[in-house]
């Protein structure tokens, strides 16, 4: 009886501890050495072989992931983009003979402390009036719209293609009071949070100190 309980316990322990490769068709076989013996008080010797067959789940071993959700085609989603940047030029507005109104400017999107990307923005009709009256150079804004291409003929007769965003939504960005443009922080700001922000995106920070002490260490 003790022998049967020991065999049952060993089989259960092996099933809970064994890990298998990711091949779903792999059928492992485990065989204990024939020299393995169990003894009782009567010094009775018995040997046994243990074979296990296990199949792994295909959904786990193959690394399958859920299929993306299928949505209806929507014109407003075609080439839709969201941008946050600073207004680089004053907004210009023009009334067309057709009665439509168009306004335009450029948005500077900072990649890091030294690199900028310039995106042309176009506003139409009511949004053109809003941008012309409220958007000023240097303000930080959020623009949602569609990415389109324009082709312009140069003086040399060559065609140049550039990208622009036709704005459909315009918002101003609320600036946090914890960190100012000069890199200073208010009394309520956390120094730990500032260091965490620095290490998360070190390329967005730069040294604004004018009077820096240069320290050189010589090691002998």
TrEMBL record:
Molecular function GO terms recorded: single-stranded DNA binding
PROSITE patterns in the cross-refs: SSB
SUPFAM superfamilies: Nucleic acid-binding proteins
Gene Ontology cellular component list: mitochondrial nucleoid
GO biological process: mitochondrial DNA replication
Keyword terms, alphabetized: DNA-binding
Gene3D superfamilies the UniProt entry points to: Nucleic acid-binding proteins (2.40.50.140)
Entry-linked Pfam families: SSB
Protein name: OB domain-containing protein
The organism of origin for this protein: Trifolium subterraneum (Subterranean clover)
